[in-house]
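Same chain as my last thread, 112 residues:
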Amino acid sequence: MNERVTPPIHALPDGEAEVALVLHLPWEDVALLGQEAGRLAARMQRPVTLDEAVSHRLRSNRSAAHAKPAGAQPPAVPSTASVSSLPPRPPAEQARQAIERINGTAGQHESA
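reply #2:
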């Protein structure tokens, strides 16, 4: 069932292309994308989807790599080694912590 299928690519009127992908990400990466979307939304002063945040991140990394002088290394992709070395947590706990990071409420718990 691991056959490779090329996703459909659609040309957009603005000269860009659209590729639909399904990604399986750890909750920590989803939280980071949420933070990126929050920063982008603040800069653009409008709501931003995770799709837009990913597209923006890919474009900015590509632009930064092209702007480097010859022989310079492209920007390093953040390593997930620190994430994968963490002890496993139940999915519900991972989801709760990711949502707290996205909402900026990590470490703030209601007191009774």
